[in-house]
Design goal:
This protein is α/β, with parallel strands linked by helices. It contains 28 helices and 19 strands. It is 49% helix and 11% strand. β13, α15 and β14 form a beta-alpha-beta unit. It starts with a strand and ends in a 7-residue tail after the last helix.
Amino acid sequence: MIDYTVDGDGVATIAIDMADRPMNVLDDDSAAAIGETVRLAIADDAVKGVIVTSRKNDFMAGADLTVLLGERDPRTHMRRCRELQRIWRDIETGGKPFVAAVNGTALGGGFELCLACHRRVAADEPRSLIGLPEVSIGLLPGSGGTQRLPRMLGIARALPPLLEGTRYGPAEALAAGLVDAVVPPGSLLDAARTWLREDGNPVKPWDERGFAIPGPRVQSPEGYMLLVPAIARLRERTRGNYPAPPAIMSCVYEGCQVAIDTGLKIEARRFARLAAGDVAQNMIRSLFFGVGAANRLKRRPGKATRRTFARIGILGAGMMGSGIACAAADAGLDVVLLDTAPDLAHAGRAYGESVFDKRVARGRMTETERDRALRRISPTTDFAALAGCELVVEAVFEDRAVKADVIARAEAAIGEDAFFASNTSTLPITELAEASVRPRRFVGMHFFSPAERMKLVEVIRAERTSDDTIAAAMDLSRQLGKTPILVNDSRGFFTSRVIGAYLDEGRALLAEGVNPALIENAARLAGFPVGPLALSDEVSLELEQRIIDQTRAALGGDFVERSGDAVVETFVRRLGRPGRKAGKGFYDYPDGGDKRLWPGLGGIYARAADQPEVETVRKRLLYVQGLEAARCLEEGVVSGPEDADVASILGWGFPSHLGGVLSMVHTVGIGTFVSDCEALAAAHGPRFEPPGYLRALIAEGRRLYAA
């Protein structure tokens, strides 16, 4: 695990190399080994200085989160924090200079080890990431990050890396003050030795007499002017749902007024409370393990051949098709972008150009990279141009007849071994596959708008879709940098069903006379990026009306009208307010101004005299989604709660502090959730009736998650 050597000049090298891991991580064993080796180097009179580095391609990924998930005893987290803090303080106070030779990515606890060293030299590796991203999974840096960074940089410069969890490239880390030097990879160890030989100061500034934190002190007018607005902005951004950012602020505020050893105790206590709490547990489970498993293609049929695509076709150059084309071209694929008229096809390519131009302006893409990506997009109206495409995605009008036409024309042009994917959001893939001459090679790939940015892809298995086709769709998704979730065919699949429940509940509340501002604000306070009325406008009420009509026609007497369907019809057919694209829906969208709720709403739906509490509205908007997700799990639309949670967070911004739509049910407790839903059903109708699946879990003493 540790390769320890001492050269003839008295330079010891501690090279970390966990044999059973692809990357070094901090766990009980690695921490003990590092601590033992640090003490060995300090005690060895022959050692004049120490280099800490890694034998792997990267330095260290951070803490092993498997030891955190499910651990609800704060004392255990406190013990681990304090042990690491003691080792890092041994490095700082042992009387010998330590230099971190950061040969690759160093994140979280791995970078906190670097911060404890007296100097940090990073290799100029473009793929490397450096930083303290703990806040992104509901935690704070627990082995000194909240104490060392402000003492190094001052409070103003230290807060953004801590509160935003930014991952920096080497040059950015140097500019931000996180590392002291960036050198070519081949010069890394030489640069570390040079510093030990020419400087090698073994005392940190905060261990010297008379040390003062750079910049304004906490208890000063300047400090108040810095911290008070920052706290207000933090509250506005998190709406009180995420305890980690205010805990970080408290660590900095309190810790910067005392000696570092006292500050470390403050940090450890706050870390322990966070790590044992619901929010961190939910975020670790879903954002780290859930998303990680999906990205490793956990649901991919294992025996299918792995594929790398070179050329794909996209039917429809609207916003969705153009966004998919952007993602594909950016990933290095050649794209045939087809539409019914040349100007439409070229407009799709122009959309890609505008996306790439913005990236160039923000420094996220070079002009050469932009031009190369644009050359990969070939706009056309000719189906014959699809020849040679290995997979074709249709993203045309949400109408079964239109889709059937393009399916037939595209399949006539592509090779027999090519795959076909439909990007429909609601139409059953099994029904669409009836238009295909190759139903085993027909699959659903539901992208999310804007497709060039949104990470989720719903891969939908129809009745006759082969494992090889499912694997191909998942391989393409990962090649595009997306996270695929495998679902079984269902009208609306998983995401559209659950999003639909959210949107419909917002409209039902409106029809009941609930103040529309209350509806929207309750959703935002719950943690949603936008309220259900605003999202309805974004999705398009006109599209929703079309889906309602098609579903009614397909199901006939089995069609069940939802509580808010009449509201959609009122806005589309009577009021002519079909959504944002038309500039009017539940909101008005004035040119050059911010959107605002349409003042005429009060004249359509009279305000109820007794308005519900915010918590009541919040619960209805959340619980109706939890119920629909549980029904999808019961019906086998999704294979497990982790799939539902990842899809809900990545697909429509379900609050990540709740861990996703079914993590919310798990956190509330299935018994409590079912009881609350029974009360909601009695008050508001059968849509809140809990499914038998949840009742069975209660009867059998089972949970959605083990921890």
